[in-house]
Specification:
It contains 4 helices and 6 strands. The radius of gyration is 47 Å and the shape is elongated. The relative contact order is 0.08.
Length: about 190
Amino acid sequence: MTDDTTKINEIPETESPELTISPEESAESKKESKKDRTHKKTKNEEQLEKVEIELLELKDKHIRLQAEFDNYRKRTLKERMELLKTASESLLVNILPVIDDFDRAMQTLDLVEEESHLKDGVNLIYTKFQEFLKQNGVREIDAKQQDFNTDLHDAITKIPAPTEELKGKNVDVIQKGYYLHDKVIRHSKVVIGE
């Protein structure tokens, strides 16, 4: 048995010439493999840089898209709030002549000296109507004896001022003006003293 093992261990050189590599060939193959490795590294590094750049661009696009969406959301919420605030504007503007008639009726009822249930009922309705207007953001523009302001008042005519203090001011109010929240929905029609 020992003879067999010695035969196996002793392989003649002529049978496997391909397995032996000369030292020159091994050095060249090492150089080539190093070149391949460095080439592969640079290729990998280039690809990595490209991927990083693409990632940064995508992050930037994502952040910008989020900011745009946030701005859109805020803008639509603001517009919705404004719309809800002034949605009833046309209805309230059409009610203003009724308010004027009510004011005239109240002035006429104040001239009546006797107390009656009719006067009390109209007074109650007028009070509720004024409360309804306040709840909806409608308020009167204070114009009598105020400085004339073109943003709030429309001048109907000019008359001589009864006193020196009323020159350039509103002497009389012909038709009341109203705000809806902070927006003027009807200008006051006034007479200016000169």
